[in-house]
Amino acid sequence: MSNSEDKPPNNYVESPATDIPTPAVETGTGFGVAPITRRWRREDMLNRGSLALRGLALLFSLLAFIIMASNKHGDWKNYDKYEEYRYLLAIAMLSTLYTAGQALRHVHELSTGKQMLEKRTSAMVDFFGDQIVAYLLVSSSSSAVPLTNRMREGADNIFTDSSAAAISMGFLAFISLALSALISGYKLSTQSIWTYTVFQVNLVHQQLRGATLIARPCSRFMISTTQTLSSGV
User: Fold this and answer.
1) Cα dihedral value 76, 77, 83, 88, nearest 10
2) Is the pLDDT of residue 106 over 80?
């Protein structure tokens, strides 16, 4: 028999080479590119949504102001003879000025990419401003509803119809600003979490830096001690 027949069969089968996935390298701060990109896209979407809602609030507030200011038809059919309607007119004018200023600021920031205010300050102004003006809108509109209903029981005319239209515009402006306040609250909460996270990362970085500064003299001392002992031996 030949030598090749005496050898035992080679049962070892070489496994095919497989590519071992390389784990993603994380940055020292723990933040990747993808989360930051998603955060930027989410902020841009929220800013555009907030701008759209404030634009609607501006439109409804302006309509409420114009309708009520022109609601003069002589005798008892003049808005300025009723405190509720004067209150609604004043709040509609305030809401128009506020939403116009906010809309212009957001348009400037979106077009230029520059923040007129610090992010946290801007989020606080948006949140509290939207809430206050929304509350004033629903308060003024609600106070004018009972008066309009009593007038409509006696006579339904152009004066009461105009008053009802102004009240409806006030309620629509309130809904727009209330939704904008929800977005502003979410932005404020995420801004607070992000600020706290960055603070913690900076704190850990400072601690690691301090530990490194302390470790360097210790390592030098250990090296010099070792060299001294080695030379003595």
Assistant:
1) 180
2) yes
- Tell me the C-alpha distance between 108 and 86, whole Å: 33
- CA-CA distances (angstroms) from residue 208 to 27, 195, 219? 15, 20, 16
- Whether the Cβ atoms of residue 54 and residue 176 lie closer than 8 Å to each other: yes
Dihedral sign (CA 113, 118, 123, 127): negative
Return the closest-CA partner of residue 95 out of 69, 43, 133.
Answer: 133
pTM (2 decimals)?
A: 0.65
Closest CA to 47 of 136, 113, 101: 113
pLDDT, position 218: 52
* Separation between Cα atoms, residue 166 and residue 93, nearest integer Å: 12
**Pairwise CA distance, residues 114 & 116, whole Å:** 6
Choice among 27-36, 137-146, 169-178 with the minimum mean pLDDT = 27-36
In order, the DSSP letters of 154-181 are H---HHHHHHHHHHHHHHHHHHHHHHHH
Q: What is the CB neighbour count within 10 angstroms for residue 59?
A: 16
Dihedral, CA of residue 174, residue 175, residue 180 and residue 181, to nearest 10: 70
Contact 95, 177 (CB under 8 A): yes
Q: pLDDT per residue over 188-220, tens digit each?
A: 887 655 444 444 445 445 545 655 655 555 555
Ramachandran angles phi, psi of 115, nearest 5°: -85, 130
Could you identify the residue written with the tokens 């690691």?
208
Q: Which alpha helices (DSSP H) does 70-157 contain, by range?
A: 83-112, 119-154
- Give buried/exposed letters for 34-49 (b at 16+ CB in 10 A, else e): eeeeeeeeeeeeebee
